[in-house]
Amino acid sequence: MEGKLAAIADAAKGAIAACGSLEALEEIRVRSLGRKGELTELLKSVSSLPPEKRAAFGAAANRAKQEVSALLESRKAGLSAESDARRRKADALDVTLPGRRAWVGRRHPLSQLMDEVIEIFHGLGFSVAEGPDCETEWNNFEALNTPRDHPSWNLQDTFYLEKPPNLLMRTHTSPVQIRVMESQKPPVRIIAPGRCYRRDAIDASHMPVFYQCEGLYVDRDASLADLKATLTYFARQLLGEDVKIRFRPHFFPFTEPSVEYDFSCVFCQGKGCRVCKQSGWLEISGAGMVDPNVFNKVGYDPEVYSGYAWGMGLERVAMLRYGIDDIRLFYQGDLRFLEQF
Question: In the list 99, 103, 205, 341, which could disulfide-bond 109, CB 3.0-4.6 Å?
Answer without folding.
Answer: 341
